[in-house]
Amino acid sequence: MKLFESELKVVNIGLESFRQGLTDCGVKSVQAQFKPPLSSEAALFAGTAKYSARINKANEKALARVLEAKPALVGMGVALAVIPGMKRDLILHAGPPVTWERMCGPMRGGIMAALMYEGLAKTPKQAEKLAASGKIKYAPCHEHNAVGPMAGIISASMPVFIVKNEAAGNYAYATQNEGLGKVLRYGAYSPEVIERLKWMETALYPTLNAAIAYLGRIDLKTIVAQALHMGDEVHNRNRAGTSLFYRAIAPAVIKTCRDTATAAKVLEFINGNDHFFLNLSMALSKASLDAGRGVKDSSLVVVMARNGTDFGVQLSGTGDRWFTGPAQVPDALYFPGYTKADANPDIGDSAITETNGLGGFAIAAAPAIVQFVGGTAEDAVNYTLAMYEITVGENNIYKIPYLNFRGTPTGIDVIKVARTGILPFIDTGVAHKNAGIGQVGAGVLSAPPEPFAKAFEHFARNLK
Q1: CB burial class (10 A; 0-12, 13-18, 19+) of residue 368?
Q2: Are 206 and 462 in contact (CB under 8 A)?
Q3: Which of 343, 302, 316 is nearest to 441 (CA)?
Q4: Is residue 63 in some structural domain?
Q5: Are 61 and 316 in contact (CB under 8 A)?
Q6: CATH number of the domain that residue 361 is part of
Q7: Do 260 and 317 fall into the same domain?
Q8: What is the CATH number of the domain that holds 138?
Q9: Claim to verify: residue 245 and residue 307 sit in the same structural domain
Q10: In-domain check, residue 288
Q11: Among the three residues 283, 311, 341, which one is the final residue of a domain in this structure?
């Protein structure tokens, strides 16, 4: 009988709109953050529960390989010479496999820029015709040990960073970052885009290559660990990471570059491009996660990637098979003159950072990012805390000061994603949906449910 003599406390587990009447009456209430599972097949969840001990052991093994990775920048080279399986008529792109007919505008624009850069076409019209002719082959960067931001385009003559996981001996590759605005990776193909790429090939690349050779190696994992303590999450914010890389490379550039004007321009380019470290953070994440591949019975996600049309994931225990669903448009802060109607659906291999416990998973270390969509520092912390619910463990090196140096949530478990309905949180840049325009904003989004539902169902059905 004392129940009705005390303050009423309400927990709403239905639609949040049900709380409105309570709020109007001045009644305090709490909204339960419940989400339905991604799969309606209860037998599949029962099956994974039956084999949970085996799955957990496999996931621990896969995650241990990821956490033990020692990614270091060990050199540079031309894509055709160093990327496995690279050919002159092959162009690598971000995300899962996609044909020219299904490619989005910015990916088409990036390919057109690459064809003009390679000298295979003189005009955008010629490049578009060649790209659609069937004479050019396309493949995901991920299928060639590489990663690329946004459109992710890598063509034969492009210089790439070589990152070695010194613990397992595997390699990953990524191009140099062009900067922001009208650039190839956002689908731009104007003359200044090609001119910049040529300068990067003829000046930036040989200068950095000589400096890296002089140093022997640069420990990328240590740079990321420090950058997290300085306000980066090394996906959408790389100011600290780029600064730390600059400190490492600048003395070697001065010592190895004989032309002072070239050295000055190279260092000015890096200093003026806060995103320069992004491509390296992606390559180190790729090198780390590839070490966790091929573990039987592991439900660990080793790839999340988007091509502007599809969002794809791969699991440690299911080989090179892709599981895909429609890519979604981010919630973003748009440049003046642009709106969400101008935005292309999410694109790029850069979600490999989130897959590695960085980016949106470490956003509590970089609360400035949520300002893109009018969020708060508390929102950033809550986004990271939610990711602990869907990961196998916590990172032993990448840690978040605000969370008392708790390790970032690392090792996405597709079973946990399917069971809880909590989807990976990603921060990202936004490209215009039409080729040739470039970047129009930056923002955040949750991964779409379809790839994870498909991956879970395939994994669960094939457990034996």
Answers
A1: middle
A2: no
A3: 343
A4: no
A5: no
A6: 3.90.1700.10
A7: no
A8: 3.90.1710.10
A9: no
A10: no
A11: 283
Same domain, 305 and 375: yes
Residue 444 included in any domain:
yes
pTM of structure: 0.93
Same domain, 257 and 184: yes
Q: What is the pLDDT along the chain (464 residues), one digit of tens a residue?
A: 676 677 777 888 767 777 778 778 888 887 776 678 988 889 999 999 999 999 999 999 999 999 999 999 999 999 999 999 999 999 999 999 999 999 999 999 999 999 999 999 999 999 999 999 999 999 999 999 999 999 999 999 999 999 999 999 999 999 999 998 789 999 999 999 999 999 999 999 999 999 999 999 999 999 999 999 999 999 999 999 999 999 999 999 999 999 999 999 999 999 999 999 999 999 999 999 999 999 999 999 999 999 999 999 999 999 999 999 999 999 888 889 999 999 999 999 999 999 999 999 999 999 888 876 667 889 999 999 999 999 999 999 999 999 999 999 999 999 999 999 999 999 998 999 999 888 888 888 999 999 999 999 999 999 98
What CA–CA distance (Å, rounded) separates 48 from 307? Answer: 31
Using the 3D structure, point to which of 262, 283, 304 is the last residue of a domain.
283
**End-to-end distance of the chain based on CA atoms, in angstroms?**
54
Structure tokens given for 40: 């309606």
Q: How many CA atoms lie within 13 A of 387 on its CB side?
A: 32
| Structural domain total, the chain | 3
The domain of 147 spans: 71-283
**5: which DSSP letter?**
G
The C-alpha atoms of residue 384 and residue 362 are separated, in whole angstroms, by: 6
The answer to whether residue 375 is domain-embedded is yes
Cβ atoms of residues 199 and 320 within 8 Å? no
